[in-house]
Amino acid sequence: MIKYLGSKRRLVPVLGDICAAAGARTALDLFTGTTRVAQEFKRRGATVTAVDTARYSEVFAQTYVALDADEVDYPALNEALADLADRPGYDGYVTETFCSSSRFFQPHNGRRIDAIRDAIERDYRDSWMYPVLLTSLIEAADRVDSTTGVQMAYVKAWAQRSHQDLELRVPELLPGTGRAVRGDACALAASLGSFDIAYLDPPYNQHRYFTNYHIWETLVAWDAPEHYGVACKRVDARADDTKSAFNRRRRMPVALAQVIVDVDAALVVVSYNDESWVPIDDLVVMGEARGGAVRTLSFDSRRYVGALIGIHNPNGDKVGTVSHVRNTEYVLLAGDRDLVDRVAQGVVPPDRQRCW
Protein backbone atom coordinates (compact mmCIF):
# COMPACT_ATOMS: atom_id res chain seq x y z
CA MET A 1 0.00 0.00 0.00
CA ILE A 2 1.35 3.42 -0.91
CA LYS A 3 2.44 6.00 1.65
CA TYR A 4 -0.60 8.20 2.18
CA LEU A 5 -1.49 11.31 4.16
CA GLY A 6 -4.34 10.55 6.55
CA SER A 7 -3.94 6.80 6.16
CA LYS A 8 -6.05 4.86 8.64
CA ARG A 9 -3.60 1.97 8.85
CA ARG A 10 -3.63 1.92 12.66
CA LEU A 11 -7.41 2.27 12.83
CA VAL A 12 -8.18 -0.38 10.22
CA PRO A 13 -8.56 -3.25 12.74
CA VAL A 14 -11.00 -1.17 14.79
CA LEU A 15 -12.99 -0.17 11.70
CA GLY A 16 -13.08 -3.80 10.63
CA ASP A 17 -14.38 -4.77 14.06
CA ILE A 18 -17.06 -2.07 13.78
CA CYS A 19 -18.14 -3.49 10.42
CA ALA A 20 -18.31 -7.00 11.89
CA ALA A 21 -20.09 -5.92 15.08
CA ALA A 22 -22.70 -4.14 12.97
CA GLY A 23 -23.25 -7.32 10.97
CA ALA A 24 -22.75 -5.29 7.80
CA ARG A 25 -23.22 -7.06 4.49
CA THR A 26 -23.08 -3.87 2.42
CA ALA A 27 -20.65 -1.01 3.01
CA LEU A 28 -19.84 2.41 1.57
CA ASP A 29 -16.36 3.97 1.78
CA LEU A 30 -17.05 7.51 0.59
CA PHE A 31 -13.54 9.00 0.65
CA THR A 32 -11.69 5.80 -0.12
CA GLY A 33 -8.18 7.08 -1.01
CA THR A 34 -5.94 4.02 -1.17
CA THR A 35 -8.98 1.77 -0.39
CA ARG A 36 -7.31 0.51 2.80
CA VAL A 37 -10.57 0.62 4.78
CA ALA A 38 -12.67 -0.61 1.86
CA GLN A 39 -10.37 -3.62 1.62
CA GLU A 40 -10.85 -4.37 5.31
CA PHE A 41 -14.63 -4.20 4.94
CA LYS A 42 -14.33 -6.57 1.99
CA ARG A 43 -12.22 -8.97 4.09
CA ARG A 44 -14.97 -8.90 6.70
CA GLY A 45 -17.45 -10.14 4.11
CA ALA A 46 -19.15 -6.91 3.05
CA THR A 47 -19.92 -5.94 -0.52
CA VAL A 48 -18.24 -2.54 -0.76
CA THR A 49 -18.80 0.58 -2.83
CA ALA A 50 -15.60 2.67 -2.87
CA VAL A 51 -15.86 6.34 -3.92
CA ASP A 52 -13.28 9.07 -4.48
CA THR A 53 -12.56 11.95 -6.87
CA ALA A 54 -8.99 10.84 -7.60
CA ARG A 55 -8.13 8.89 -10.73
CA TYR A 56 -5.63 6.75 -8.84
CA SER A 57 -8.23 5.94 -6.17
CA GLU A 58 -10.58 4.68 -8.85
CA VAL A 59 -7.82 2.43 -10.19
CA PHE A 60 -7.11 1.09 -6.68
CA ALA A 61 -10.82 0.47 -6.14
CA GLN A 62 -11.13 -1.34 -9.47
CA THR A 63 -8.22 -3.54 -8.39
CA TYR A 64 -8.86 -4.18 -4.71
CA VAL A 65 -12.62 -3.71 -4.36
CA ALA A 66 -14.38 -4.47 -7.65
CA LEU A 67 -12.14 -7.33 -8.82
CA ASP A 68 -12.76 -10.83 -7.46
CA ALA A 69 -9.46 -12.59 -6.69
CA ASP A 70 -11.14 -15.97 -7.17
CA GLU A 71 -11.84 -15.09 -10.81
CA VAL A 72 -8.35 -13.77 -11.66
CA ASP A 73 -6.21 -15.52 -14.29
CA TYR A 74 -2.95 -15.34 -12.32
CA PRO A 75 -0.76 -16.99 -14.98
CA ALA A 76 -1.87 -14.30 -17.45
CA LEU A 77 -1.29 -11.55 -14.88
CA ASN A 78 2.18 -12.84 -14.03
CA GLU A 79 3.01 -13.09 -17.71
CA ALA A 80 1.91 -9.49 -18.28
CA LEU A 81 3.98 -8.21 -15.36
CA ALA A 82 7.02 -10.13 -16.58
CA ASP A 83 6.51 -8.68 -20.06
CA LEU A 84 6.37 -5.15 -18.66
CA ALA A 85 9.39 -5.69 -16.43
CA ASP A 86 11.45 -6.68 -19.50
CA ARG A 87 10.71 -3.48 -21.41
CA PRO A 88 13.89 -1.41 -21.82
CA GLY A 89 13.65 2.01 -20.23
CA TYR A 90 13.83 5.28 -22.12
CA ASP A 91 13.51 9.00 -21.48
CA GLY A 92 9.91 10.19 -21.52
CA TYR A 93 7.59 12.49 -19.59
CA VAL A 94 8.36 10.99 -16.17
CA THR A 95 12.12 11.10 -16.68
CA GLU A 96 12.05 14.66 -17.93
CA THR A 97 9.55 16.00 -15.40
CA PHE A 98 10.10 14.00 -12.23
CA CYS A 99 13.79 13.10 -12.55
CA SER A 100 15.35 16.11 -14.33
CA SER A 101 13.05 19.09 -13.72
CA SER A 102 12.43 17.74 -10.21
CA ARG A 103 13.94 14.89 -8.18
CA PHE A 104 11.13 12.56 -7.20
CA PHE A 105 12.74 9.49 -8.82
CA GLN A 106 16.23 8.59 -9.86
CA PRO A 107 16.59 8.56 -13.67
CA HIS A 108 17.12 4.80 -13.94
CA ASN A 109 13.68 4.29 -12.39
CA GLY A 110 12.07 7.18 -14.25
CA ARG A 111 13.04 5.61 -17.57
CA ARG A 112 11.50 2.31 -16.57
CA ILE A 113 8.30 4.00 -15.43
CA ASP A 114 8.06 5.74 -18.81
CA ALA A 115 8.53 2.49 -20.74
CA ILE A 116 6.17 0.44 -18.58
CA ARG A 117 3.43 3.06 -18.53
CA ASP A 118 3.54 3.46 -22.30
CA ALA A 119 3.33 -0.30 -22.72
CA ILE A 120 0.36 -0.59 -20.36
CA GLU A 121 -1.52 2.03 -22.35
CA ARG A 122 -0.62 0.61 -25.72
CA ASP A 123 -0.86 -3.14 -25.08
CA TYR A 124 -3.26 -3.60 -22.14
CA ARG A 125 -5.73 -0.71 -22.32
CA ASP A 126 -8.68 -2.96 -23.17
CA SER A 127 -7.69 -5.79 -20.83
CA TRP A 128 -9.25 -6.63 -17.46
CA MET A 129 -5.68 -6.37 -16.19
CA TYR A 130 -5.38 -2.65 -16.98
CA PRO A 131 -6.17 -1.29 -13.46
CA VAL A 132 -4.19 -4.10 -11.83
CA LEU A 133 -1.09 -3.30 -13.87
CA LEU A 134 -1.47 0.41 -13.12
CA THR A 135 -1.79 -0.39 -9.42
CA SER A 136 1.35 -2.51 -9.56
CA LEU A 137 3.25 0.32 -11.26
CA ILE A 138 2.10 3.02 -8.83
CA GLU A 139 2.99 0.86 -5.84
CA ALA A 140 6.36 0.03 -7.38
CA ALA A 141 7.06 3.73 -7.99
CA ASP A 142 6.05 4.57 -4.44
CA ARG A 143 8.65 2.12 -3.10
CA VAL A 144 11.48 3.96 -4.90
CA ASP A 145 10.45 7.60 -4.61
CA SER A 146 12.40 10.29 -2.78
CA THR A 147 9.74 12.06 -0.70
CA THR A 148 8.47 12.17 2.86
CA GLY A 149 5.23 10.63 1.61
CA VAL A 150 3.56 13.51 -0.22
CA GLN A 151 4.45 14.99 -3.60
CA MET A 152 4.43 18.68 -2.75
CA ALA A 153 8.21 18.41 -2.42
CA TYR A 154 11.08 15.93 -2.61
CA VAL A 155 13.87 15.49 -0.09
CA LYS A 156 17.10 17.42 -0.64
CA ALA A 157 19.32 14.31 -0.72
CA TRP A 158 18.20 11.12 -2.45
CA ALA A 159 16.23 8.86 -0.12
CA GLN A 160 17.91 5.50 0.40
CA ARG A 161 15.03 3.61 -1.17
CA SER A 162 15.32 5.65 -4.39
CA HIS A 163 18.56 3.81 -5.25
CA GLN A 164 16.69 0.51 -5.51
CA ASP A 165 15.41 -0.79 -8.83
CA LEU A 166 11.71 -0.51 -9.63
CA GLU A 167 10.02 -3.87 -9.07
CA LEU A 168 6.55 -4.81 -10.28
CA ARG A 169 4.62 -7.10 -7.95
CA VAL A 170 1.25 -8.80 -8.09
CA PRO A 171 -1.14 -6.76 -5.91
CA GLU A 172 -2.65 -8.64 -2.97
CA LEU A 173 -6.11 -9.14 -4.43
CA LEU A 174 -9.17 -10.10 -2.38
CA PRO A 175 -12.00 -12.54 -3.05
CA GLY A 176 -15.45 -11.08 -3.52
CA THR A 177 -16.77 -8.22 -5.60
CA GLY A 178 -17.65 -4.59 -5.08
CA ARG A 179 -18.01 -1.33 -6.93
CA ALA A 180 -15.58 1.48 -7.83
CA VAL A 181 -17.09 4.95 -8.34
CA ARG A 182 -15.21 8.11 -9.23
CA GLY A 183 -16.97 11.30 -8.24
CA ASP A 184 -17.53 14.00 -5.65
CA ALA A 185 -18.95 12.89 -2.31
CA CYS A 186 -21.19 15.95 -2.05
CA ALA A 187 -22.82 15.19 -5.38
CA LEU A 188 -23.07 11.42 -4.96
CA ALA A 189 -23.80 10.76 -1.28
CA ALA A 190 -27.58 10.70 -1.62
CA SER A 191 -27.68 8.60 -4.80
CA LEU A 192 -25.36 5.68 -4.14
CA GLY A 193 -27.95 3.39 -2.61
CA SER A 194 -28.66 1.97 0.82
CA PHE A 195 -25.94 0.42 3.01
CA ASP A 196 -25.57 -1.32 6.34
CA ILE A 197 -22.55 0.85 7.13
CA ALA A 198 -21.15 4.03 5.58
CA TYR A 199 -17.61 5.14 6.39
CA LEU A 200 -16.57 8.77 5.93
CA ASP A 201 -12.95 9.88 6.17
CA PRO A 202 -13.10 13.41 4.72
CA PRO A 203 -10.13 15.77 4.30
CA TYR A 204 -9.59 17.64 7.54
CA ASN A 205 -7.96 20.87 6.35
CA GLN A 206 -6.45 22.79 3.43
CA HIS A 207 -4.11 20.02 2.29
CA ARG A 208 -5.33 18.77 -1.10
CA TYR A 209 -4.93 15.18 -2.21
CA PHE A 210 -4.96 16.30 -5.86
CA THR A 211 -1.69 18.16 -5.33
CA ASN A 212 -0.26 15.90 -2.63
CA TYR A 213 -0.42 12.97 -5.07
CA HIS A 214 -0.28 14.72 -8.42
CA ILE A 215 2.25 12.20 -9.79
CA TRP A 216 -0.18 9.32 -9.29
CA GLU A 217 -2.88 11.39 -11.01
CA THR A 218 -0.56 11.86 -13.99
CA LEU A 219 0.49 8.20 -14.11
CA VAL A 220 -3.16 7.19 -14.42
CA ALA A 221 -4.29 9.98 -16.77
CA TRP A 222 -1.05 9.64 -18.80
CA ASP A 223 -1.73 12.98 -20.42
CA ALA A 224 1.71 14.68 -20.17
CA PRO A 225 0.24 17.81 -18.55
CA GLU A 226 1.89 21.17 -18.38
CA HIS A 227 3.28 21.75 -14.92
CA TYR A 228 4.42 24.49 -12.60
CA GLY A 229 6.57 25.05 -9.53
CA VAL A 230 9.48 23.17 -8.03
CA ALA A 231 7.31 20.07 -7.52
CA CYS A 232 6.13 20.13 -11.18
CA LYS A 233 2.48 19.93 -10.17
CA ARG A 234 -0.15 19.50 -12.85
CA VAL A 235 -1.31 22.87 -14.17
CA ASP A 236 -4.96 21.82 -13.73
CA ALA A 237 -4.36 21.85 -9.97
CA ARG A 238 -5.11 25.56 -10.33
CA ALA A 239 -8.55 24.89 -11.82
CA ASP A 240 -11.62 25.24 -9.61
CA ASP A 241 -12.98 21.83 -10.56
CA THR A 242 -10.00 20.12 -8.92
CA LYS A 243 -10.58 21.94 -5.62
CA SER A 244 -12.75 20.38 -2.95
CA ALA A 245 -15.17 22.05 -0.58
CA PHE A 246 -13.49 19.99 2.13
CA ASN A 247 -10.26 21.98 1.71
CA ARG A 248 -11.95 25.34 2.31
CA ARG A 249 -12.43 26.40 5.91
CA ARG A 250 -15.77 28.17 5.41
CA ARG A 251 -17.34 25.59 3.09
CA MET A 252 -16.08 22.43 4.72
CA PRO A 253 -18.41 22.26 7.78
CA VAL A 254 -21.51 22.76 5.63
CA ALA A 255 -20.37 20.16 3.10
CA LEU A 256 -19.56 17.59 5.78
CA ALA A 257 -22.86 18.11 7.60
CA GLN A 258 -24.79 17.60 4.37
CA VAL A 259 -22.91 14.44 3.42
CA ILE A 260 -23.47 12.93 6.87
CA VAL A 261 -27.21 13.53 6.50
CA ASP A 262 -27.38 12.44 2.85
CA VAL A 263 -25.84 8.97 3.06
CA ASP A 264 -28.39 6.18 3.37
CA ALA A 265 -26.95 3.80 5.94
CA ALA A 266 -28.03 2.10 9.15
CA LEU A 267 -24.70 3.05 10.76
CA VAL A 268 -22.62 6.08 9.77
CA VAL A 269 -18.99 6.02 10.87
CA VAL A 270 -16.87 9.18 10.62
CA SER A 271 -13.11 9.37 11.20
CA TYR A 272 -11.77 12.64 12.46
CA ASN A 273 -9.01 14.10 14.63
CA ASP A 274 -8.32 16.99 16.99
CA GLU A 275 -6.37 18.96 14.35
CA SER A 276 -9.33 19.46 12.04
CA TRP A 277 -11.35 22.58 11.34
CA VAL A 278 -14.48 21.18 12.98
CA PRO A 279 -14.43 20.66 16.77
CA ILE A 280 -15.57 17.25 17.95
CA ASP A 281 -18.68 18.72 19.62
CA ASP A 282 -19.76 20.23 16.29
CA LEU A 283 -19.20 16.88 14.61
CA VAL A 284 -21.47 15.27 17.18
CA VAL A 285 -24.21 17.77 16.30
CA MET A 286 -23.83 16.78 12.65
CA GLY A 287 -24.31 13.13 13.62
CA GLU A 288 -27.34 13.94 15.74
CA ALA A 289 -29.01 15.54 12.71
CA ARG A 290 -29.55 12.00 11.39
CA GLY A 291 -31.68 11.17 14.43
CA GLY A 292 -30.88 8.32 16.78
CA ALA A 293 -27.79 8.07 18.94
CA VAL A 294 -24.22 9.29 18.56
CA ARG A 295 -21.16 7.87 20.24
CA THR A 296 -17.52 8.82 19.78
CA LEU A 297 -14.51 6.60 20.28
CA SER A 298 -11.08 8.16 20.85
CA PHE A 299 -7.60 6.87 20.11
CA ASP A 300 -4.20 8.34 20.88
CA SER A 301 -2.21 8.26 17.65
CA ARG A 302 1.19 9.10 16.28
CA ARG A 303 1.02 11.87 13.67
CA TYR A 304 1.73 11.28 9.99
CA VAL A 305 5.41 10.65 9.22
CA GLY A 306 5.72 13.90 7.24
CA ALA A 307 4.79 15.81 10.39
CA LEU A 308 7.26 13.85 12.50
CA ILE A 309 10.35 14.72 10.48
CA GLY A 310 9.80 18.48 10.51
CA ILE A 311 8.78 21.29 8.17
CA HIS A 312 10.57 21.63 4.83
CA ASN A 313 10.38 24.10 1.95
CA PRO A 314 9.88 23.00 -1.70
CA ASN A 315 13.66 22.58 -2.05
CA GLY A 316 13.72 20.04 0.78
CA ASP A 317 15.41 22.36 3.31
CA LYS A 318 14.21 22.12 6.90
CA VAL A 319 12.62 25.44 7.82
CA GLY A 320 10.58 24.74 10.94
CA THR A 321 10.22 22.57 14.02
CA VAL A 322 7.59 20.03 15.00
CA SER A 323 5.15 21.31 17.64
CA HIS A 324 3.79 17.90 18.64
CA VAL A 325 4.14 14.29 17.52
CA ARG A 326 0.83 12.77 18.67
CA ASN A 327 -2.84 13.61 18.26
CA THR A 328 -6.25 12.17 19.07
CA GLU A 329 -8.13 10.24 16.40
CA TYR A 330 -11.90 10.09 16.76
CA VAL A 331 -14.36 7.60 15.35
CA LEU A 332 -17.96 8.81 15.48
CA LEU A 333 -20.84 6.34 15.31
CA ALA A 334 -24.34 7.53 14.41
CA GLY A 335 -27.44 5.38 14.07
CA ASP A 336 -30.13 3.53 15.99
CA ARG A 337 -29.24 3.54 19.69
CA ASP A 338 -29.26 -0.24 20.11
CA LEU A 339 -27.00 -0.65 17.09
CA VAL A 340 -24.62 2.11 18.15
CA ASP A 341 -24.38 0.79 21.71
CA ARG A 342 -23.83 -2.79 20.57
CA VAL A 343 -21.09 -1.79 18.13
CA ALA A 344 -19.28 0.54 20.56
CA GLN A 345 -19.36 -1.93 23.43
CA GLY A 346 -17.99 -4.67 21.21
CA VAL A 347 -15.07 -2.59 19.94
CA VAL A 348 -13.48 -0.41 22.65
CA PRO A 349 -13.64 -0.12 26.47
CA PRO A 350 -16.05 2.42 28.02
CA ASP A 351 -13.25 4.83 29.07
CA ARG A 352 -12.63 5.61 25.38
CA GLN A 353 -16.30 6.32 24.64
CA ARG A 354 -18.58 9.35 24.89
CA CYS A 355 -22.28 9.03 24.14
CA TRP A 356 -25.09 11.47 23.31
Topology (SSEs and partners):
Blueprint (H helix, E strand, L loop, with lengths): L11 H10 L4 E4 L6 H8 L3 E6 L2 H12 L7 H12 L7 H8 L6 H17 L6 H13 L36 E4 L2 H4 L5 E7 L8 H4 L1 H8 L5 E2 L4 E2 L17 H11 L1 E10 L6 H9 L4 E10 L2 H4 L2 E2 L5 E3 L5 E10 L1 H9 L7 E3 L1
Parallel strand pairs: 1-2, 1-4, 2-3, 4-7
Antiparallel strand pairs: 5-6, 7-11, 8-11, 8-12, 9-10
Helix pairs in contact: 1-2, 3-7, 5-6, 6-7
Task: Report on this structure.
About 1% of the residues have low confidence. A hairpin with a 4-residue loop joins strand 5 and strand 6. The protein has an 8-stranded mixed β-sheet with strand order 3-2-1-4-7-11-8-12, with helices on both faces. The chain has a two-stranded antiparallel sheet with strand order 5-6. Helix 1 crosses helix 2 and helix 6 runs antiparallel to helix 7. By secondary structure, it is an alpha/beta fold. The chain has one domain. The chain is built from 14 helices and 12 strands.
List keywords for this structure.
356 residues, alpha/beta, 8-stranded mixed β-sheet, 12 strands
